[in-house]
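Obj.: predict assembly geometry.
Materials: sequence records (below).
Method: joint structure prediction, all chains together.
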Amino acid sequence: MKIQAVKGTRDFYPEDMARRNFIVDGWKRASIRNGFLEFDGPIFEYLAMYQQKSGDEIASQLFAFEDRGERMLAIRPEITPTLARMVNQRINALPRPIKWFSVPRLCRAERPQKGRLREFFQWNVDIIGVDDCLADAEVIFCAVDYLIEAGLGSDDIVVRISSRRLLASLLEYFGIEESQLDKVYAVLDKKAKVPPEAFEKMLEEAITDADKRVKVMNLMAAETLVELEQFAGNDENAKKAVDELKRLFEYLNVMGISEFCTFDIGIVRGLAYYTGIVFEIYDKSQQLRAICGGGRYDNLLADFGGPKITATGMGMGDCVLGIVLEEKGIFSKAAVNGVIEYFVAYAEDALRNDALNIIAKIRRAGKIADFSYKGGGLGKQLKQASAAGAKQCVIIGQEYSQKKLILKDMIKGEQVEIVESEFLGQLKNAD
Amino acid sequence: MKIQAVKGTRDFYPEDMARRNFIVDGWKRASIRNGFLEFDGPIFEYLAMYQQKSGDEIASQLFAFEDRGERMLAIRPEITPTLARMVNQRINALPRPIKWFSVPRLCRAERPQKGRLREFFQWNVDIIGVDDCLADAEVIFCAVDYLIEAGLGSDDIVVRISSRRLLASLLEYFGIEESQLDKVYAVLDKKAKVPPEAFEKMLEEAITDADKRVKVMNLMAAETLVELEQFAGNDENAKKAVDELKRLFEYLNVMGISEFCTFDIGIVRGLAYYTGIVFEIYDKSQQLRAICGGGRYDNLLADFGGPKITATGMGMGDCVLGIVLEEKGIFSKAAVNGVIEYFVAYAEDALRNDALNIIAKIRRAGKIADFSYKGGGLGKQLKQASAAGAKQCVIIGQEYSQKKLILKDMIKGEQVEIVESEFLGQLKNAD
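Observations (raw C-alpha cells):
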C-alpha cells in the first residue's frame, strides 16, 4: 500500500517545520509585545456556525462531515466565528478591552494554487470593546511590527486602507439601496483582482442604473482622502467616515509606520461582516494575493447571539507570506531547531555506558546532547558530530579512568581536559 | 443564533492556553535536548491510510468526509501513519537514524469521558533505523526527562515495560498459533482495565483450549524477568527476548531513571503494529488511563509501501497528563503569557499621541508594552497597570515638556525621572 498526501496539503519535514516555526514564533512574539493574549478553539465546530456569517466564498469551501450522533460538523475555515462564540459565552466575566490573538490551523476546500492551499495557518489579532479607530491603528501596527521584525521594510510592503462605513455612506448618498450594498461590495472587492472589462461587466450586473454606475466608477478612481471629501459633499455620515480615516492615519503616523500606509478606495474585503475601517497588506513587487487583511466588524458578536459590541481585527496566512519571505531571502535565517550543544563520543564500546550516563546528565541539565548509536572509531564519531553541526564534543577516552573528559570546541578546533564533576557542575550554572 | 462548542472539544481561553502552552513548550524542549527534530503532516489524509494498520479501535473512531472530487478523507486520529508515509517518500535522502518528534492535534470520534476527548494534542517521538534497544531506552528516557522537568518524580509516576516479542515467542511456545496472536493481544491488553471475571471470560473466548489458557494465566501472573526466564525454558526466541529486556533495563539504569521503570507482563498495547518492546507510563496514585505509551514497530514502514526498517517511538496525550499536572498543583506554574513589561500612562489626553509614540518604540524594541484606551486620571491608569500585573509604568506628565519621563517600579513602588532618549536607548541594549 503506497498512499500519497492529499493535494493542497503540506508535509512539514524538519527543514519545512523550521520555516513554519520561524513564521509562527514571530507572530506570537509580536502579539505578546503588543499586549495580546493567546486563545484557541476546536478544529471543528457545528456546520451551521459557518453557514450564516462567513460570506459565500468561505461557506462554499467548507469541509463538512457528520458525527455518529448525526450532528453536522465542519473543519474551521476561519477562527472569527469561534472567537465570537467564546467571547459571547463569557461576555460578563471577561475584562474589556479584550485583546486576543490566535494562530489557528484552518482548512478550506478550494482548488490549490499559488499562495492558496486547502490547509494553512493564519495569525489572528482582535480587539473587542474599543470603538475608537485607535484600536484599528493598533491592529495594523501589530501586523507591520511583525513584518518589520521578519525583515521587510516600506520598500517591500504596503498597507492599503479604506472604510466600509465611508463606502456605504457614499453609495447610499448616490442612491444605491442598503439591501444592495453586500452585492456591490462583492463586485468592488474584485476591482484589482480581475481585468477592467470583467470588472465593468460585473458592475453592470450589480448596478443597473447607468448614472449611479458612473458615480461609483468615478468614486473608485479617487486616490486621496481630499478627493473623498469632495464626493462626501454635505453628507454627514460620509464626512464622519472621512474624519475617522484621517484620525486613523494620524495615529499610524504617531506610531511611526505612516511610510507603510496608504489610502486605497479599492480595498473592500470579501467577507460580509466588515462594517468600518478595512485594510489589506500587499507585497509591492509582485502580483500576489494580500499578505494580510482585516477591519472592523461591529455586528458579529450580536450575529452570534451576543450583545452588540464593537470589534476590529486582522488575519495573516502563512502561504502568501511564505512566498514573500522566500523570495526576499529571509527564510535562510530559519534554522532547524536544536543545534546540538554537546555531541558525546566514546573511544571504545566499553565506554558506551559511561557516555550514555553523561548524555543523560547533560540533557537533564537542559542542554541539547546527542551521540552515535553505531559508535566505531573516534574519528568517525567526530565526523558525525561535525556533520550534525554540533558546537562541542565531549570525548570519553582513556582519561576517563581518572574521571576526566576531553572537551573539544568544534568551531575553533581546540580541546581541553576537564574533570567530569567540574564539567557537569558548569552545565547547571550555565544559565 | 446562539451556537455551542461541540461536545468533547475544548475552548482555550487565555488561562487554558497558558496550560496548553506549558505542556507543549515542555514537550518541545525535551525533544530538542534529546536530539529530535520537529516534523508535522496535514490534519487530514486519505481515509484508506487509517483503515489498514491503526487497529480496530482507532479505525472505528475516524471522522471521515468526502471532498469535492469525491475522495474519502479523514481527520488524523494519530500521526504514526503520516510519519511512515513521509519517511517512505524520502527514504533514500534522509540520513539515519531518523530522530523526529511532533506535537499533532488529533481527533477521534469517541464518547467523551475523563481523560479522553474527541480532540486532543499528542507528543510523538520516534527513532527510525536503530535496531538496538538503546533506541527504546532513549525514547523512554525522553518521556521521563520531560515528566521530571514538569515536576513529577518516581513517587508520582511509573514506566511499565514489557515485550511483544517475548509474549509472541512464549505464546507460540505454549502452542498458540501465530494467526491467533493479535486476538490474544487484544484480550491481554484488557487485563488491568476490566474486572478479573470479565477478563477470564474474554480469554476463554480467545483461547478455547483449557491447558493453553492456564499456561497463559500463569504467565500473566509473572512479576519478574527471572520468572520469565523459567517460562522461556530452552526456547531460543523467548530467551533472546528476555535478554533484550535485561539489556534495556541496564540502559535505563545507566541513564539514571531505573527508579521510574518496572517490568510488567500486563503491558501489551492496543495497537496492532507493535512488534518488540512496549511500555506505558502511569500515574501511581490514581486509576487513570496511561499518560504515555509506545514501543517498537518494525513492520510499519513496509506496511505503507516502503522498505522494512526498524523503528520505535511513543505518544503522550495532553488530557490524562493535564489531569495529573492539575492534581499535583503543577499547573499553578503555568502563567498566561506576556506579563506587561511597560505600561505607558499619560497625565492628560493632550499627551496621548506622545504615549502612543513611546509605546510603538518600546514594542519595536521587542518589549511587551500596553496602555489604557480610555485614559482618564493617572491614578486610574496606574490602577489598571497594577491589575494587569505590569512590572513598570512609564508616566508621561508635565516633565515631558523637557522630554523627560517618569519610570515607576510597580513592585517596589519607587519612581525615577529619566530623559526619553536615554530610556529608549536602554531598551535596545537590555538584552
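Conclusions so far: Chain B has a mean pLDDT of 92.
To do: check interface contacts against the pulldown list.
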